[in-house]
Amino acid sequence: MKVTELPAIVSAFQEIKSRAQLHWQELWNSSKPAILVGAATCGRAAGALEILQTLRAEVKKQNLDCPVIEVGCLGHCYAEPLVIISKPGYPPICYGRVNR
Q: Spelled out in words, what is the top-level CATH class assigned to the domain 31-100?
């Protein structure tokens, strides 16, 4: 990397960061409930992708207006797979060691 490339890299990073912050605010300030599934390496090893697939199928089957979102590390590897249910007006609920 050349020093002359640094401003463009910083600018690109700031754009990515701004979009991520906006997306995060939209998620937590949404008028709809949401289901988040931790699917980093530890979550995947514990079966998070199967949980994600099962939850998406059930939400579709029940015709619910609720996104099921794959997220990264939630920081509690010992309790994977983790699922967080967020509902507007209520604190989020985190379930650990989720299975089918």
A: alpha beta
